[in-house]
Structure formats: structure tokens, C-alpha cells
Automatic annotation (TrEMBL):
Phylogenetic classification of the source organism: Eukaryota, Metazoa, Chordata, Craniata, Vertebrata
Protein name per the record: ABCC8 protein
Gene assigned in the entry: Abcc8_0
Protein family (similarity comment): Belongs to the ABC transporter superfamily. ABCC family. Conjugate transporter (TC 3.A.1.208) subfamily.
Gene Ontology MF: a single term: ATPase-coupled transmembrane transporter activity
GO BP terms: potassium ion transport
Entry keywords, A to Z: ATP-binding, Glycoprotein, Membrane, Nucleotide-binding, Repeat, Transmembrane, Transmembrane helix
Organism: Geococcyx californianus
GO cellular component: membrane
Superkingdom of origin organism: Eukaryota
Segments traversing the membrane: 26-45, 57-76, 82-99, 120-141, 291-319
Amino acid sequence: GWGSQSSKVHIHHSTWLHFPGHNLRWILTFILLFVLVCEIAEGIVSDGVSESRHLHLYMPAGMAFLAAITSVVYYHNIETSNFPKLLIALLFYWTLAFITKTIKFVKFCDNGVGFSQLRFCLTGLLVILYGMLLAVEINVIRVRRYVFFKTPKEVKPPEDLQDLGVRFLQPFVNLLSKGTYWWMNTFIKTAHKKPIDLKTIGKLPIAMRALTNYILLNEAFEAQKNKRSSSPQGSRSIWRALCCAFGRPLLLSSTFRILADLLGFAGPLCISGIVHNVGKGNNTIRPQTKILGVFFISSQEFLSNAYVLAVLLFFALLLQRTFLQASYYVAIETGINLRGAI
């Protein structure tokens, strides 16, 4: 309980007000895991065409993958328990990871490794990701003032989390739970045992109640009425008020849908590449670049492997469905809030 800031306020749910940069940290960690998977695959493919075994091509990336998973689990438990001082461990880890990857990147540059080699690009991406995660960690220190400051910032959980009647926790869970709807397992288990009623579902969070959304829409409508302009009032003013009050979530829903549609092109491209490589009957690449005693493959050589394309196809379909469901959810939730406001 060193430095705990949760002892004075009792909450009824295993979640807390998110630390600064919560969503950005999760997104960066997901990207980091994907890049590390690519680095592991690149190391295995490079090692497969070498004359001798080189475990250093993929073993460090595998350890980094496990460390990244450990870091996000560690962060989640710290955040739900509100023990920000324990984030010091992550601060040291991101710093060391950033320094070591930067040294590796500089060594590649000194030995003539360039953008034509995939390993060079992956190392550069890892330097950027570790640097951004380090910046997120420093920003938590700056905002929460939990260390190196005499007076840490006092925070209180949202009123919804202090209310036992609120069981709709979508706005308060972490990004992974939101994307997979893991937080709904309690409802699913309860409904499996017996029919659920309104008491079991509980109250809505304050931000989703009709009165809250009515106030939001009314303020936007009054702001449109008070504007001195030559444009006529009436339906146009109402549409502008609706866009002002609920435009951001609808824009977010549209962004998710666009990303899902773009990822839809990955499936046919990956399947076409797999069929092409299988049809050739020879899935072994022959890289020509050999530096520091090992082969360095290019992005084109990497993507000519059918197994690599199969893994990319899996991730593309997974992300496509995730973005599509997120788009549906945000659109439906915004529509309910909008109708309640009207």
C-alpha cells in the first residue's frame, strides 16, 4: 500500500479513474506487441535461411513480448488499485528499453543497414514506441504529481463508481475490456442462471441519462440561437445543435467504420499472396543481404512467406471485427442519448 491514494474513498467496483494517457498507453502497447510479433517472425525467417543457428535474432524479441504483456497487466492492477507510485518500475523499464533499442538502431546505421532491410525498420519503430511510452509515463508523474513532488494531486473516483446501483461500467473499464466487452461477463453469467430484471441491470451512468443529454443539447441549441448571423433559424439551427452536442461520438463511429472497411482489403490481398506462394511450390526465400554474419531480409522477402501472410490475415480480420463492433456500439449509444435528449 505504499503511496496509496484510494484508502480515503470506498468504491464498489474493481476499477478507478484512469491515469492520464490511459487509452494512448493501451494503443501503444497493442502496436508494440504487433511490432514485436513481426520482429520475432522476421528473426525466425532470417534464422531459417542461415547456415547456423542465431537465437539472438528472435529470443530478445520474445522476451520483450512477454515483458510488454507483463507491463500492461502490471499497469492495470496499479490503476485499479490506485497505487501510482508503483509505476516507478515501468518508468525504469521504458527508459532502459528505449536506451538499448536506440543503441541497436545506431549500430545498424554504423554498419550500413538501411530502410531496405526490415529489421532496421522494426528497430526504428520500437525506438519510437518505447520513447512514446516513456513520455506517457513521465506525463503521469507530471499530472498526478505522485513522486518528486511534496504535494501529490488528490483525485476522487467518479460519482458513478461510488454508487452501488450503477453496474454499467463501459465508460470506466480499460480499453481491452471495452473492445472485447469483457465487463459484460457478470450480466451474461447472471442471465444464464435466471432471467434478469431492471434491478439487476442497475442504473445508467450520469453521462448516459436523459436529463444529462437534454442539458447538453439544450445548451448547444441556446448557443445557436444566441449567435448573431444572417442564417435562418429553425431546422438548420437544430441540426447544428445536434452536431455540436453529439458530433464527436458520431465522428468516432465513422472513423472506426472507415478503419474496418480499409482492413477489409487485407483479407483478399493476404489470401492472394498465400495462393501465389503455394502455387509456386517453393516457399523458401533467398535473401542476398548479409551483414554482421547474418542475413537481413527485406519487407518484400518477408511478405513472400505464406506463414507470415497467414498470421497477418488473422490479425487483420481480428482488428476488422473489433473496429466494426466498436463502430456499431458508439453509433447505437449515441442514438439512444440523442433520442433521450430530444
